[in-house]
Amino acid sequence: MDMTSVRPALSGKTYFIRTFGCQMNLHDSERVAGLLDACGCFEAAEPAGADIVIFMTCCVREAADQRLYGQCNSCKSLPAPPSGTRVVAVGGCIAQRDGEGLLTNVDNVNVIFGTHAIAHVGELIAQAFEDGGRHVSIAEDESLAAVSMPWHRETVYHAWVPIMTGCNNFCSYCIVPYVRGRENSRPFEEVLDEVSALVRSGVREITLLGQNVNSYGRDRYGAPRFAELLRKVGETGIERIRFTSSHPKDLLPETIDAMAETPAVMPHLHLAVQSGSTRILKEMNRRYTREDYLDLVRRVRDRIPGIALTTDIIVGFPGETEEDFEETLSLAREVGYAQAFTFIYSRREGTPAAAIVDPTPHEVIQERFDRLVKVIEDTAYEFNQGELHATVPVLVEGASKKNTRVLQGKSPKNQTVHAPIPEGLHIEDLIGKIVDVRVDTARTWYLSGTVAGDPR
């Protein structure tokens, strides 16, 4: 079946998509929206006005399940939709993990589609409208089908570009390999063709996506080709290149060289450490030591001075002692992260770490978490002082939520930057443009200053 053909059951229907979790989920949501657009549907501003409500789920955190059940139940109290019938669909990682089991937890869900089955979401929803039944698809073998689907991008200036799906790492705390499957790289030329087309359509910044981009090509070509891909993507004319996620054990010297030598690659690297304790890293099955990680950071900074390093850190992994945690604190101080995503360990059934009994009281873990947050606030503040009195090129995303006369955007180092909108200009004139901002204030979570020169 042509996945983009208009089905009578969908034509004219309205849809609303709520997305939880990682950037890969955001991209999947844009593909689902594109498919529904192609089926003759229209986007609604909120669930109340939608014939089709879709939840794109993430199962990395424990609270995600309860949050989903609450969101689905809230649909029961919505007013009748424009068509008189509402179809509720659940996609993403919880859908892949639980499949039909979800139907027993949420009785008003009509469609469940896994991470590999999003190409079929149109026909599944159409069937639900046609027969009033409940339809489930969690096929395991179509993980790259989504990347050839139509696409409804949230912004005209930025695009997510998946270069691979799945993960082979099996970190002991992580459910992702079980719900996203094994690594599956897209063909090299296909990625380049997509980026070239995006450049022609006016996109200025792309983010290359994969659970571990450093492994790109290993499954398809027998060896990683991420460094080569970065260089070639840099030749397409795209102005800004970002990528995520990057596993420390696979960040090769040639990739660091490609980052340093490709002007479009932004001076920002998200390098998840998870813990500063070699003992805990081994329990996590991360396959590098504290020393390996710090050595890698030194090599990156030698080649790209001033680079912004960001990370993920888990507090309270089963068996973590005060000594282990102190090693995480000292590593965070030594690296001097520009930002970090910090998490309290969340037990996920089906992962090896779930079997480890841990007597550490929650209040001890919470107290450690609070101490880590304070260290990250200190390093982020310190890092941002490096931009004080500098002029930084800012890709404008929109107006500040707190003040509509102030623009908000991102620096090359992915810092949030604010500046008053210049006299005579409106925010609509600036979204997707690059403006130079002279920074006169550097805080923990943002920079601010004044626009210098004309937008471009």
Task: Offer a quick outline of the entry.
With 456 residues, this protein is α/β, with parallel strands linked by helices. The protein has helices at 23-38, 63-74, 93-98, 102-105, 121-131, 176-180, 188-200, 218-221, 226-234, 253-261, 278-283, 290-303, 322-335, 362-384, 427-430, and strands spanning 14-19, 42-43, 52-57, 87-92, 111-113, 135-137, 158-162, 164-165, 184-185, 205-209, 240-244, 268-270, 308-315, 339-344, 391-399, 406-410, 416-420, 434-442, 447-452. It has 15 helices and 19 strands.
What can you see in these coordinates?
The chain is of the alpha/beta class and 456 residues long. Helix content is 33%, strand content 21%. The protein contains 15 helices and 19 strands. The chain has helices at 23-38, 63-74, 93-98, 102-105, 121-131, 176-180, 188-200, 218-221, 226-234, 253-261, 278-283, 290-303, 322-335, 362-384, 427-430; strands at residues 14-19, 42-43, 52-57, 87-92, 111-113, 135-137, 158-162, 164-165, 184-185, 205-209, 240-244, 268-270, 308-315, 339-344, 391-399, 406-410, 416-420, 434-442, 447-452. The longest helix is centred in the last third of the chain and has 23 residues, at 362-384. The radius of gyration is 23 Å and the shape is globular. The model is unreliable at 1-6 (pLDDT under 50).
